[in-house]
Fold this protein.
Amino acid sequence: DFVVGTAVAGGGHHLEQDYPDPFTYDREYRKVLGRQFSSVSPENQMKWDYIHPERDRYDFGQADAIVEFAERNKQVVRGHTLLWHSQNPAWLEQGDFSQEELREILREHITTVVGRYAGKIQQWDVANEIFDDQGKLRTQDNIWIRELGPGIVADAFRWAHEADPKAKLFFNDYNVEGVNAKSDAYYALIQDLLEQGVPVDGFSVQGHLSTRYGFPGDLEDNLRRFDALGLETAVTELDVRMDLPESGVPTEAQEQKQADYYQRTLEACLAVDGCNSFTIWGFTDKYSWVPVFFEGEGFANVMTDDYERKPAFYALRDTL
Ligand code: XIL
């Protein structure tokens, strides 16, 4: 049942200029995507700004294409994402809506998007990054929580469940790999929601790691405590960035360290019963978001720009 996935590149701000759409235009990319993975996650193509560009218009083109590709290649799909503070369209963020209107906008969006792919999505990241690093709810930058209060999160899960009773519904975040204030906040919230009967099925750690900050050695322990709540767990966006080498080419030591982080993340997931989904955030450095978002860091993926396999690729393969 264990699936190994990747994000499907396309639509990101960092790609728009150079590579508008690798998924459609890069044949080598599609070949690796179809062959090496049993799960796919749209990197941007199901996010609000992409799929719902105007209030009365959806753009399902790329999301449909990814879901069809997955069906042809016998892959499952992780849906990403429904309630988030980022990558929302301007019409939403800058609109002037009443509380009732906003609530209806979210309900309609979730019902439409989840309903469209009902039966075809294994896991949905219903709520993405709702806590900050201190473990405080994002009551300022998350439009939904700010305008409608924290109860909207439970409603999002209920609406998603109604639209696709088979999909497993997740909370997803970064910097929650280890046991810390932020993962503690999720633990407390999810416990509370489960007691209320809210349909939460899983907790996932993104896994945007950096060799600068060390490996979260308590990852397995952390996954286990969510497992003990009866939840599924997952790694959803693993990449391991490194300091940009002066020579322009990573050293062997850098690549070994990176491989080690990849391997330990996979081992932690494999060690936990309900951790059945392990996804890397892209496979080639060519289309990585990392150099654009993290100054001075890069080379975070398991293949080079030319699709050569790095030590991290083999480390994962040999661990599986
Ligand atoms: C990133 C994408 O990789 C980029 O293409 C986009 O420009 C910004 O978002 N956490 C998430 C992902 O949940 O959706 C983010 O993806 C990375 C951090």
Notes: The longest strand covers residues 232-243. Strands lie at 3-8, 39-42, 76-83, 123-128, 168-173, 202-205, 208-210, 232-243, 275-280, 297-298. The chain is about 40% helix and 20% strand.
